Structures are given as C-alpha cells and as structure tokens.
Amino acid sequence: MASPREPVVSEPTVRQSLSELIAAGVPSYSFEFFPPKTDAGEATLWEAIRRLEPLRPTFVSVAYGAGGSTRERTLGVVKQMAYDTTLTPVGHLTAVDHSVAELRRIIGGFAAAGVRNVLALRGDPPGDPQAEWQQHPEGLAYAEQLVSLIKASGDFCVGVAAFPEKHPRSPDWDSEITHFVRKVRAGADFAITQMFFYAEDYLRLRDRVVAAGCDVPIIPGIMPVTNVGQIERFAVLSNAAFPPDLADRLHAVEDDAEAVRQIGVEAATALCERLLAEGVPGLHFITLNRSTASLEIFERLGLAGARSRP
C-alpha cells in the first residue's frame, strides 16, 4: 500500500454529509483517532483504521494537537482517508494559536480533499491544557466563532464538543448550557461529548440542552479503559468522574494488561447498552489508535455485522 500521506488516486470519494447520515433514523457508530507523531505511530494508526473499516462506521474523526502541534499530520491522515478508504472522515479543527487567515487555509485544505465534515473546537492551551487560555492576536476567542467561520467558508457539516460533567472552565451549569446553545445557534449540526463513565451525566446534559430549546444530536464519546494510569490522567484533564469501584477493580490487576483491557471492555459495553436503551443518536469510540477494544465492544453489542451506514 502506498504511504498514508500520499494519495493513490486523483480525486477523493464523494460522501454524504453527516447531517444526512445522523438524521437517517438509526444510531450512528464512529471512531476517533489521534494524529501520530512518528512513522511507527502512523503504521499503528493505519493498522487500526484497516481493521475497523469493515465495520462500516458512520464516520471517523482525527483529533488535532494542542496549538496545532500535529496540524500537518492531522491534515495528511484526513486527506488520505478521503482518497484511499471508504470511510467518511471528520477533521478536528481548533482555534488555539491560529490566526483567522491560518484557519481559512486549513478549512480550504479540507475542502480541497473533499472533506466536508469538521469538528470545531476552541482547543486547550499548548503545553499545559490547564493553563490560562490565550487568544491569538489575529484569531478567535470562542468555538462559536470558529463554527461561524467554517459555515461561512462553504458547504460544511460542523460538529462541536459537549461536556457531560461541565467544562472545567465553566463556573456553573447555566453558563455551560448558554455557551453550548450559542455554538448550535452559530450553525453546529451535531455534538460529540468528552469521555464520561456515568450514563446519568450524559442524560442530565441532554435534558438541560432540550430544556434550553435545543434539539441538536449529542453523540456520547466512549473511551474503553486499556491502561489504568492513562485513563485516570485523561479523566482529570477532561473533568470526568472515574468510578471508584471500577478504579479498584483495575488497580487490582493493573500489572496484567489483558485483564485491564477485559475489565475496560466490560465496563464500556455496559455503559453503551444503557445509553442505547435511552435512545442516544449514536456512539463515538475514542480508540487511542488501537482497534481491539472497540472491536470487542462491537461484538458484545451485536453490532459487528450491522450495516451502520448506506
């Protein structure tokens, strides 16, 4: 196979907008990858992509490093997905450390590759995600402004982030919901949540958004536990409460990678089953560029043979 960064055909495949796919009336199933920093990491990423592609997910997304630290690799992976796979790619785009001119160029790069689905995020400060957020002097201050910019740049379907346990920088829930609704009013077509472990947190967020007169689809973000220390660090950074009983079970076997993965798969499957029973619009699996856990969850949910998109 050709290098993942070199398109092997002259034109990208034309794909449906996510607005159409999500509105099809059946739950969407999707996967999130992060851009690799090395060639070896890129090989691992493409191995995971090829293993998950036969599941025919509704879409796949590629994250964007803080401050644009992985910008070129993000663009490269997204473009290659558009050219060389049957997948519908979603490119992440953050406002942090970018001028409006730079953002327009990146948006144009997505459009040139036939990528019409973008997840618009304000983004964390580079280096320290918990540091004070600084607006680029020629950039944007809020995700809602990035949504407006993308929408004004062409025929794009735009997603935004949602936070089941409130964004760490939000002072209260009223502020949290106000900011979320503003993103939707700016043109957001759907939302994907940060990772969480309690279904009730997602359900309360959904109820608050509906009560605010907003009916945008909010897709739960699911991160199966495959590494105890890693997931606990992610939970702190994303303000996600980590269940004490799950933590105890994982720490009891933390030196056994297979046992950790099995417990993680079991917990994620139970969460997905509860969410599907509550009528969620889909499930978005944060893979960390590994496919095994997501494949197992699909099998346990009885989804492995399902045709999740046309």
Description:
This protein has 310 residues and is α/β, with parallel strands linked by helices. It is 43% helix and 14% strand. It has helices spanning 18-22, 39-52, 71-84, 100-112, 143-152, 173-185, 199-211, 228-238, 244-252, 257-277, 292-301; strands spanning 28-33, 59-62, 89-94, 117-121, 157-162, 190-195, 218-222, 282-286. Strands 1-2-3-4-5-6-7-8 form an 8-stranded parallel β-barrel, surrounded by 5 helices. Strand 6, helix 7 and strand 7 form a beta-alpha-beta unit. Helix 9 (244-252) packs antiparallel against helix 10 and helix 10 (257-277) packs across helix 11 (292-301). The longest helix has 21 residues, at 257-277. Residues 1-10 have low confidence and may be disordered.
**What would you call the structural class?**
alpha/beta
Total helical elements: 11
Task: Specify the helix fraction band.
Answer: 40-55%
Indicate the mean pLDDT: 86
**E-strand count:** 8
Low-confidence stretches: 1-10
Rg on CA atoms, Å: 18 Å
Q: Strand portion, in percent?
A: 5-15%
Which sheet architecture does the biggest sheet show? 8 strands, parallel, barrel
Global shape: globular
Q: Could you spell the SSE succession in H and E letters?
A: HEHEHEHEHEHEHEHHHEH
Question: In terms of topology, how is this protein built?
Answer:
Blueprint: H1 18-22, E1 28-33, H2 39-52, E2 59-62, H3 71-84, E3 89-94, H4 100-112, E4 117-121, H5 143-152, E5 157-162, H6 173-185, E6 190-195, H7 199-211, E7 218-222, H8 228-238, H9 244-252, H10 257-277, E8 282-286, H11 292-301
